[in-house]
Write a structure and sequence with these properties.
- This protein is an alpha/beta fold.
- It contains six helices and eight strands.
- Strands 1-2-3 form a three-stranded parallel sheet. A three-stranded mixed sheet has the order 5-6-8, covered by helices on one side.
- A hairpin with a 5-residue loop joins strand 5 and strand 6.
């Protein structure tokens, strides 16, 4: 199994600075899929995918989600910039995505105090996902995401209202056995 991942794409659909742009990214992904077999490749984004370029910002990330859908992403997690346009835009983008968004440490503030909040995920995400890849021997991979705990402090307050950002390590540990029990052979 080959895992391809990146982060901080920042909506750079066209080449800009050190960002190669979507065409080069897609070409690299397609070359790897051709070399090792598409059924043996997992494609992941580790956050900050949409905000940053004029084209993506005008459409609040819609073109990035459309492009990622065409490229066949398997899962993504949130960077702090996914919250820049507020939760309603974020919910719209996650609903447009053909892949799940995973984050174990973003939970609903169900107690009014993040130190005692439970583990209920917001509607726009799930803590982890199980993906099966590999040919001829399938492997079930548990993909879990975490998001920086700084997010509520570095975005506008309304963007994270009603949410808590738990400790990333504690959150992974919280779901680790559950992923194994659900059938994960490997956890990423």
């Amino acid at each position: 199994v080959t895992i391809l991942h990146h982060n901080d794409f920042h909506g750079q659909l066209e080449p800009s600075g050190s960002n190669p742009g979507l065409a080069r990214l897609a070409n690299t992904v397609n070359n790897v899929r051709t070399a090792v077999g598409a059924d043996n490749v997992l494609l992941l984004d580790a956050g900050d995918e949409m905000q940053g370029s004029l084209l993506s910002n005008i459409w609040q990330g819609e073109p990035v989600i459309a492009a990622y859908n065409l490229m066949g992403y398997d899962a993504a997690t949130f960077g702090n910039h996914e919250f820049d346009w507020g939760q309603q835009v974020l919910i719209s983008r996650t609903q447009e995505a053909a892949y799940p968004y995973v984050t174990a440490n973003i939970v609903l503030n169900d107690t009014g105090d993040c130190t005692t909040a439970g583990w209920e995920a917001p509607d726009f995400a799930q803590p982890y996902t199980l993906l099966t890849v590999g040919d001829p021997v399938p492997v079930t991979i548990g993909v879990i995401g975490v998001t920086t705990q700084e997010t509520p402090y570095i975005t506008i307050p309304s963007a994270t209202e009603g949410l808590c950002f738990k400790d990333p390590a504690d959150s992974i540990i919280h779901y680790y056995d559950e992923m194994e029990d659900a059938g994960a052979d490997v956890i990423v």
